[in-house]
Structure formats: C-alpha cells, structure tokens
Amino acid sequence: MKPFLPAILHKLGWKSKLALLAPTLLLAGVAWRHWQGPEIEAETVMRRDFVQSVVASGRVEAPHRVDIAAQITATVLRVPVVEGQVVRAGDLLIELEASELQAGLRQAEMALQQAQARLRQVTDLQLPVAEQQQRQALSNLNNAKAQLSRQQALFAQGFIGEAALDQARNALELSDAQWRLTQKQTESLRPQGSDHALAEAALAQARASAEAARARARYARISAPADGTLIGRNVEVGDVVQAGKQLMTLSPSGRTQLVLNIDERNLHLIALGQKALASADAYPDQRFPATLAFINPGVNAQTGAVEVKLDVAAPPAYLSQDMTVSVDIEVARKPQALLLPLSTLHEAPGMAPWALRIDESGRATRRELRLGLRSGGHAELLDGLAEGDRLLLASEAVEPGAHVRIKPGAVGPAKR
C-alpha cells in the first residue's frame, strides 16, 4: 500500500497540491530566516588620518575694554561718532560746553604773562639799576673816607674844630650804610637772591595754574585714548553729563583672544602652542585658526573647569567683542589610523572594551579591543580588529554567537 500523503497528492491536481504544500514551505522559510537572525545596521573599521581634539565653546575677548567717562559736569554739544565705528587714537568722541573753562584759561594765561613780566623786570631793569646804585654808593663811600682823612689832618694842625671832624665822621658812616644797603639790594635781585627767587616762584605758580586751566579746558573734548572700535554709546547731544559717568565703551585694537572653559578631565591633553580651529556661532561655516596661549593654573571649584585663552593672529572682520565661538583644539594626530565608531563599543569607559564582529557566516563574535585616542565619536584601534571588519552597533540587542543579517545599504564607514 502506498503512503497516505503521496497517494492523495497523486490523485490531486497541481493547484491543489500547491495549496496543500504552501504552509509547509512558509514554515520552512520562517525557520530559515530565524536561523539567519535579525536584520541590523553595521559599521566598518576603516583606516584614515585621525585627529584628536578637545571641543569647547567660549567668547571673543579683546585685551581689555576702555570705559570712557567725562571728568567734569557739563552739557554735551557734539557727539561726532556712532556705535560700531572704528576710531583712531586722538579722534574726538564727545565735545562738552566749555565757556567757563575757557574764561578760566584766559585768566590763568594772563596771570602767567604778568609773572613773566615781573621776572623780566627784576632781571632786566631792577638789577642793573641796583648795580649802578651800588657803584655810586661805593664811590660816595670812598669820597667820604678821603674827606675824613683830610679833616683829621686839618684837625691835627688846628685848622678846624671838633665839630667839623664829627661831621666828616657822620658822612662816612652814612655813605657806608648806603653802600651796604645797595649791596643787599643787588644781591637780592641777582639769580640767587630772594627777590629773584620770589619772582621765579610766582612764575612757576602761574605756569602751573595755566597748565591746570588748560587741562580743565581739555576735559571738554573727550578723545579716543587708543585705536579701536566703539562697542557702546550712552550719550546724546544736549545731555548734562556728570563727572565719572560712563558715556562710551571702546574695544582697543590689538591682539584678539578666545576665552574658553575646558573640562578639567581634559587638562592633561592640552598644552601651550597647540593649534585650533574656531568659528563664531553667527558664522558657523567660516572657520579661522587660533593658537593656545594661556592655561590658567587654577581649577574653578564650582564648575570643575579650567580657563584657557587662544590667540587669533588674523581675526576675521566680522569677529566682535563677546561673540560666542566654538573651538576645536588639536591635541594629537595619528596618520592612517584604524578607526571604529564609539557607538559600536561595549563597556567603552572601562578598561576592557569589546565589540561584536560579524564574521563571514553572519555570526556575531565578541572581540576584546585595545584602544588609543578617542575623539569626535571615534576611537583609534590598536589591537583586536582589522581594516574592513564589520561591527554591530552596541545598541543592537544581539548576543555573542547569534546570527545576524546586515540591512542592505546599512553598512557605514568609520568616519573621521
């Protein structure tokens, strides 16, 4: 007797035979696909130049800012500059009303002229007159001495009396007193004398008063102390400004720096002189070079960050004070390194990372790895895999030893 199923199939038509075998074939296909495993996405180990970088954001900072204020209380007459304007050192920024200051300056200059005239009077007039008077007094003294000598001789001969001799003595004493007085006057008017010193002191005081008046008058014209860009203006024509009130802010021209806060965990990676590429958040596609120039020796206890500064040798024209910037500091470079995505790693932060490699039969095999540099979502592979190996993403729920199928077009390279 023939087997039951073949006998039945022999009697049925081909359509009936197909309908009867379809469930069996479907079950066989499902079993085959189950044995092959689920469809997954994979990454490929690639060999590329690899740069490790520390990424941080910060701000643009000029060496310093200059707050410009008035030194007197006055009314604003003119403001010939606008915010954002580039100015040169000495350019007028603000002009204040200065009629009272100008009057004080004219008064001080007149006092200076008077002091100069007084000194000239001492040296050019009074001193020569005093010297002439001294010479005349000396001549009178010599005549008085000669007269007394003659009178004494006549008195000894009995030709004159005691009264005539006393008169000659008095004349000599008077001439001597006059000579001594003219001598003192002359000494006083000479450069080392008291009258000359008083005239010079008065002149110096007048000069100081005039210079002070000029300085006060200059307060009415507020000029740029250095080349730079005005990044703030808080004054208008007609305002009455107070002494010390900030009116403008100047960002001086000079070395431009980028100030960043780096996580202290990256402190061992950075060093002075390292190169970086930066971009302003407002212009993300325009990158410019910078150089690490300063590392703060202290760590912020609250944030765990270290402040660093980078010099920008040729800042782009659009770069402005306090702009937010993103910076990639290159801390290491490996040419033609084997790379794999961090997304394929299991226990990535630990000491024994591993990944699931898909072999030629589609089986997921666990591979222990030794890694080097890590940056930008990728790691340098030192040992454990070869170029071209396909890896499962760590997010896939696949056990080691299981079969998997790679989705068509779902194999990505390990990008830089």
From TrEMBL:
Protein name: Efflux RND transporter periplasmic adaptor subunit
Domain Multidrug resistance protein MdtA-like barrel-sandwich hybrid, first and last residues per copy: 65-248
Keyword set includes Coiled coil: yes
Domain CusB-like beta-barrel, first and last residues per copy: 259-330
SUPFAM superfamilies listed in its UniProt record: HlyD-like secretion proteins
Family as reported in the entry's similarity comment: Belongs to the UPF0194 family.
Record PANTHER family: EFFLUX SYSTEM COMPONENT YKNX-RELATED, UPF0194 MEMBRANE PROTEIN YBHG
Keywords for the protein's UniProt record, in alphabetical order: Coiled coil, Periplasm, Signal
A Pfam short name: Beta-barrel_RND_2
Coiled coil ranges: 98-151
Major site of localization recorded for this protein: periplasm
Protein localization: Periplasm
